[in-house]
Amino acid sequence: MSWTTVADLLGLVALLAGAFLCFAAGVGLVRFPDLLTRMHAGTKPQVLGVLLVLIGVWLRTRSGMDGLVLLLVGIFQLLTIPAGAHMVGRAGFRTGQVRPADIHPGRRERTGAGEAEPGR
User: Fold this and answer.
1) What is the spatial distance between Cα 101 and Cα 108, in angstroms, rounded to a whole number?
2) Are 53 and 19 within 8 A, CB to CB?
3) C-alpha–C-alpha distance, residues 27 and 22, integer Å
4) Is the pLDDT confidence value at 66 over 80?
5) Is 12 inside a domain boundary?
6) CA dihedral 113, 104, 120, 117 (to 10 degrees)
7) Is residue 49 assigned to a domain?
8) Which of the two residues, 49 and 102, has the higher pLDDT score?
């Protein structure tokens, strides 16, 4: 078995695993009930899925310049996906879709109503 065959097989496995993770992220965005769980489903598997797809493409192309471009795309994805999720979470908190008790479960037990204590 030659190196090209091994690289092609590893690239295929990485592409399929990445595609599955991206698909799972899409299903989670549709199926999960609230903003925080949808945000989790949209970011956690998506980052790894995109990186696996990029690695799979690089293993299939085996070109230095293509690898550099794919590396830049991967770095850009690693920087923007968490930043986008942070902006969505802040917007959800500011518009009232996320309550403080959802973020800090300990507040629910202290106040009893799930609202933040006055003065905090």
Assistant:
1) 6
2) yes
3) 9
4) yes
5) yes
6) 10
7) yes
8) 49
Nearest to 14 by CA among 50, 68, 66, 67: 50
What mean pLDDT is reported for the chain?
A: 85
Distance (Å, whole) CA 40 – CA 92:
13
104 located within any domain: yes
pLDDT-derived band at 25 (thresholds 50, 70, 90) equals: very high
Per-position b or e across 77-106, b if 16+ CB within 10 A of its CB = beeebeeebeebbeebbeeeebeebbeeee
Look up the domain containing 9 and give its range.
3-111
Handedness of CA 12, 14, 17, 18 (dihedral sign): negative
d(CA 30, CA 25): 9
In this structure, are residues 36 and 1 in contact, taking their beta carbons and an 8 Å threshold? no
